């Protein structure tokens, strides 16, 4: 009788294991797809790679146990797993693919082993509850949009060997208040820290060679840019000054030809609630709006017209002794049928951020 019971128990275990293994589609060591329904998943031993989109959009997933011997996480492997809260990657994982954990909005913690050397673009895109991240020493670059819109991210530790930070890498990380950039960092991409409104403590390393004019736009306190650093995206030659408003959004650049460029369009919505399509100063290839200026403390006008109506703008500016820039913009719009007309004068006070 006891022998018969033992056989039944063993048979039950074998059947359960076989059923569980049917949940995994594995080819040549790569977990191609998970087909189960469990909230807690243990990936079988022998799997060396999690394939592209293997768990993508599996909202039931709460926790995942990954086997020893795993070396790579494929693109979008766990993307949109909205219930996943924490992940520990085993030692030996070398690469994390593009978008691997994108929009895992419940993910609060992830441990990256020292073996990781490559993290793909958007790997943690919009992981809005991720609190802290430490990048291993073997990582030399942070790709584009890796931590984009990770609003809860409050602590970032970057490796000493890091040389580059990509476009929008930390854009919208409102929880960041400070970050230490390693001495070997040489380049920081467009909008890398754009909109990090609470970031007030950051020092650019002496070895930095290139940055963009909007890299720190919208930060609580943009850092001073060291002499000799190439600032991409600036308009005109011999730039003599860059100013920002209190929000850090409106960037004004004036060059040696007294030309004024704005990073936002200062034209307002008209009272009827629809924007006059004639009321645009078209942006240039760098996204800046060139306003007509004819020398300091003078006013110039520029008449623009199209089938929606007419538009004119007058701009004057002056710089005080303490470096505060005052810009006055006067807009006038009307449509061809004279159904509406709109005039507006706005005054902006901006502080200087670059000599």
Please state the average pLDDT score: 77
Task: Tally the helices.
Answer: 1
Report the sheet-strand fraction.
25-35%
Distance between the termini: 91 Å
Physical arrangement of strands within the biggest beta sheet? 23-22-21-20-27-26-25-24
Main beta-sheet strand count, sense and barrel state: 8 strands, antiparallel
Instruction: Tell me the series of helices and strands, N- to C-terminal.
Output: HEEEEEEEEEEEEEEEEEEEEEEEEEEE
Helix content class: under 10%
Uncertain runs with pLDDT below 50, 5 residues or more? 6-19, 235-239, 265-281, 293-311
Q: What would you call the shape? A: elongated
Structural class of the helices, strands and pairings?
Answer: mainly beta
Specify Rg, calculated over alpha carbons.
27 Å
Number of E-type strands: 27
Architecture overview:
The chain has a domain at 251-354. The chain has one helix and 27 strands. It has one helix spanning 2-21; strands at 24-27, 30-34, 40-42, 49-50, 63-65, 72-73, 86-88, 95-96, 109-111, 118-119, 132-134, 141-142, 155-157, 164-165, 178-180, 187-188, 201-203, 210-212, 230-232, 239-244, 251-255, 260-262, 289-291, 300-306, 309-319, 325-335, 341-354. β21 and β22 form a beta hairpin. The model is unreliable at 6-19, 235-239, 265-281 and 293-311 (pLDDT under 50).
